[in-house]
Amino acid sequence: NLSTTLTEQMRIANNGLVTMAGDLVVEGGDIGLTADTNLIQIAANRVLVNGQLRSISFSLTDGATIALDWDNGNIQYVTLAGNRTFTFANPLEGAGYAILLIQDATGSRTITWPAGIKWKGGAAPTLTTTANSADLVVFRYVNAAYYGDAVLDLR
To answer: Among 20, 22, 94, 115, which has the minimal tally of Cβ within 10 Å of its Cβ?
Structure first.
């Protein structure tokens, strides 16, 4: 039985896509959603997906300081038009995050990262500065710390 409040926050489109505002909380039971070839099972301590699982990518606004709020999505991207400072907000324990950094037509843009990131090799990666190139920087948030690495020089 769905309450009036819940039905106002949940919509089922003609194609079967379900969108919700707010949180889905599962306590003491399982939820199973099935179709011919897709299965999503949500239980107390696990989510099983047969098929692809994705996060909507979020376009950041370029500026001197770029505030990444992970509540906007696990994958975010920005085209850099100058040297930038990043801030991070709202990480979840165990979550993975990615930022696609795209150099503008000028290139040579750099990033100042938040303090405390534990980088592969002990230092932040040297980003590709070639005009119109891109770098993918990935993080895992574990034990209240970010662990970072990068895939560089994507063209």
So the answer is: 115
